[in-house]
Amino acid sequence: DIQLTQSPISLSASVGDRVTFTCRASQSVNTYLNWYQHKPGKAPKLLIYGASSLQTGVPSRFRGSGSWTDFTLTISSLQPEDFGTYYCQQSYSTPRTFGPGTKVEIK
Amino acid sequence: QLQLQESGPGLVKPSETLSLTCTVSGGSITSPPFYWGWIRQPPGKGLEWIATFYYNGDTFYNPSLKSRLTISVDTSRNQFSLRLNSVTAADTAVFFCATYSVSSYAFDNWGQGAQVTVSS
User: In this complex, do B105 and A94 lie within 8 Å of one another by their Cβ atoms?
Assistant: First the structure.
């Protein structure tokens, strides 16, 4: 199975900050790497697919990059509604796997 | 707009079978996106993929769950279901159903989730 690790585990930032978190795969996933935002009690939301493609309707402040084993999700200007946990997920091989998540809190 | 809603008993006894249904509205289960999935989140933990399947029966299972898992589709009711047998406390989780896009290779539309607790 491909293991995904994410860092940091959590972060606290202010509105307007640029925040970056990373996802590392235990082996190459090419660019079959997706990012989701999950808020408590809500449905997870797809933000980025294919490592860098913005899902329809997702604000342009979200940007994904990377390939092979190292990936980054950047929020260019953190907004109050961006709190939640962010998960990466690989679709390169079965079983599909998710990272442990990065929890984002707004100061 | 396509909407998914999970339903099922919130409490299951150990060694029994967990059953959940996902009802699809705003579209047909036999129309695009065609592929559907189940994902779960144990308390305090991350997301775990359970299975992805095509409405006509082609199914991809998480090997760690495959021996206990049954996925079925009811096209007449626009629903699909999950059955997990011989459950233990480790199966306690919020279960999500989702659509799987074969253009983005991602789960692009999710239900809000159903809490299932395994306890006597």
Answer: no
Pairing of β B35-41 and β B93-101: antiparallel
Give the residue from B55, B93, B48, B13 showing the smallest Cα distance to A100. Answer: B48
Strands of the sheet with B18-25, listed across from one edge: B3-7, B18-25, B79-84, B69-74
Q: How far is A104 from chain B (nearest CA, A)?
A: 15
Whether the per-residue pLDDT at B34 is higher than 90: the answer is no
What distance in Å separates the CA atoms of residue A25 and residue B119, rounded to the nearest whole number? 35
Q: Would an 8 Å CB–CB cutoff place B16 in contact with chain A? A: no
φ/ψ region of B29 (left if φ > 0, alpha if ψ in -120 to 50, else beta) reads alpha
For residues A96 and A2, the answer to whether their CB atoms sit within 8 Å is no
What average pLDDT score do residues A63-87 get?
A: 97
Q: How far is B9 from chain A (nearest CA, A)?
A: 18
pLDDT score recorded for residue B58: 87
Element spanning A105, H or E: strand A102-106
Radius of gyration of the CA atoms of chain A, in A: 13
Q: Are B109 and B51 in contact (CB under 8 A)?
A: no
Residue in the block written with tokens 């606290």: A12
First to last CA, chain B: 39
In degrees, to the nearest 5, what angle opens at C-alpha A24 toward C-alphas A20 and A28?
A: 135
The per-residue pLDDT for B32 is: 79
